[in-house]
Amino acid sequence: MTLIKSISGIRGTIGGQTGDNLTPLDAVKFAAAYGAFLTQQQPGKKLKVVIGRDARISGEMIQNLVSSTLIGMGIDVIDLSLSTTPTVEIAVPLEKADGGIILTASHNPKQWNALKLLNARGEFLNAAEGETILSLAEKEDFTFAQVDDLGQLTVNDSYFDIHIDEVLDLPLVDRDTIAKAKFKVVVDGVNSTGGIVMPKLLKELGVEVIELYCEPNGHFPHNPEPLKEHLKDICELVVRENADLGIVVDPDVDRLAFIAEDGEMFGEEYTLVACADYVLGKTPGNTVSNLSSTRALRDVTEKHKGTYTAAAVGEVNVVAQMKESRAVIGGEGNGGIIYPESHFGRDALVGTALFLMLLAEKKVKVSDLRKSYPSYFMSKKKIELTPEIDVDSILKKMEDKYREEDANTIDGLKIDFEKSWVHMRKSNTEPIIRVYTEAPSQEEADSLADRVMAEIRALAS
């Protein structure tokens, strides 16, 4: 059982011992720390926070604890109940709230839950803000409201419809264009809130929907991370139903993966590539993804005469770089689409609408669309080291070894070669170096990873 405290929130497994797992006491403590943080920012103001959750079994319990804690601190709560991460992100500024909390452990299995924390713009907190909240939680020095000053709870169950309307109102989304394509789509909602909102969006777009695992009961029918090895059922159903494509989301609906009509994965890395291709074709500009994402985004961006920039891993870092670069679209290679025209957060609803627009306009099969993009293959490995080894020193030695190559050190060490790259990052919690590579073939990607790992081991010995 595990409890992970990070700048982006608190994540852990339900049950067990306080401080070692996400117990009710831990949920209350970190909710209080967040409330204290907001109060410090705006002392004397009547504060408001938006809260929503995915369909995890523990979600209602954790939401009751978190909501009651904030109310006890004199903070008003807007309760969206079952929701998605991007829906809460959109609701915070619309409600003129001071922050938001999403109760979800994203792609983690059902025994996990988490408090993801937002600012008044509906964006994730930065590192300094996260550190402040962790410090407040450590001190446990909280002040609660007197009885006449308790916060109020307001339930608002309209935000799925509001979110869908926001997507339909985007200038680059045309309902009639998608409806005329007469798409038939299988949706895997992994028995979470994507099973509610994704079919609803697709039906609004005139798409025929076949639902798979769309009952929001929190009993995930497979590992909820949308990777090929977990998606056998939808891959088979797409072929059996003669569907045009399959759509897969994670439990909080900020990651998006597509299945081609032949039952093959489109590739999570290529979700952003395709959406960017569509957006850049209509609104030329710049793009951003993190250092561990596919080079294909850079290739597509340059094809459209834009500039690609890499950011450190983490959504908050990608968003910061997107603002600095004035990117028209960006995101992460895990299927996370960030489209500023909507909001600065990963959004599977927005990504789905953009992808369907591209497919409708090109009038091609999903498999043929995938073949039209540069083809790269990734290898993702890790090296476990002994605790006494200085990981930073090893990465510095690797940087020196490859000083003649194009190196980036904003997040670990990334080395770009002519036709491939390797990204080495240390873990913040254990003596591990993650080694990600990409190359024109799987064999080349694996070979590069193995070579670099051997070099790291030699430096560590």
UniProtKB/TrEMBL annotation:
<keyword id="KW-0479">Metal-binding</keyword>
<protein>
    <submittedName>
        <fullName>Phosphoglucosamine mutase</fullName>
    </submittedName>
</protein>
<comment type="similarity">
    <text>Belongs to the phosphohexose mutase family.</text>
</comment>
<dbReference type="InterPro" id="IPR005843">
    <property type="entry name" value="A-D-PHexomutase_C"/>
</dbReference>
<dbReference type="InterPro" id="IPR050060">
    <property type="entry name" value="Phosphoglucosamine_mutase"/>
</dbReference>
<feature type="domain" description="Alpha-D-phosphohexomutase alpha/beta/alpha">
    <location>
        <begin position="270"/>
        <end position="374"/>
    </location>
</feature>
<dbReference type="Pfam" id="PF02879">
    <property type="entry name" value="PGM_PMM_II"/>
</dbReference>
<dbReference type="InterPro" id="IPR005844">
    <property type="entry name" value="A-D-PHexomutase_a/b/a-I"/>
</dbReference>
<feature type="domain" description="Alpha-D-phosphohexomutase C-terminal">
    <location>
        <begin position="397"/>
        <end position="454"/>
    </location>
</feature>
<dbReference type="InterPro" id="IPR005845">
    <property type="entry name" value="A-D-PHexomutase_a/b/a-II"/>
</dbReference>
<keyword id="KW-0460">Magnesium</keyword>
<feature type="domain" description="Alpha-D-phosphohexomutase alpha/beta/alpha">
    <location>
        <begin position="173"/>
        <end position="263"/>
    </location>
</feature>
<keyword id="KW-0413">Isomerase</keyword>
<dbReference type="InterPro" id="IPR036900">
    <property type="entry name" value="A-D-PHexomutase_C_sf"/>
</dbReference>
<dbReference type="InterPro" id="IPR016066">
    <property type="entry name" value="A-D-PHexomutase_CS"/>
</dbReference>
<dbReference type="InterPro" id="IPR024086">
    <property type="entry name" value="GlmM_arc-type"/>
</dbReference>
<dbReference type="InterPro" id="IPR005841">
    <property type="entry name" value="Alpha-D-phosphohexomutase_SF"/>
</dbReference>
<feature type="domain" description="Alpha-D-phosphohexomutase alpha/beta/alpha">
    <location>
        <begin position="8"/>
        <end position="142"/>
    </location>
</feature>
<dbReference type="InterPro" id="IPR005846">
    <property type="entry name" value="A-D-PHexomutase_a/b/a-III"/>
</dbReference>
<dbReference type="Pfam" id="PF02880">
    <property type="entry name" value="PGM_PMM_III"/>
</dbReference>
<keyword id="KW-0597">Phosphoprotein</keyword>
<dbReference type="Pfam" id="PF02878">
    <property type="entry name" value="PGM_PMM_I"/>
</dbReference>
<dbReference type="Pfam" id="PF00408">
    <property type="entry name" value="PGM_PMM_IV"/>
</dbReference>
<dbReference type="InterPro" id="IPR016055">
    <property type="entry name" value="A-D-PHexomutase_a/b/a-I/II/III"/>
</dbReference>
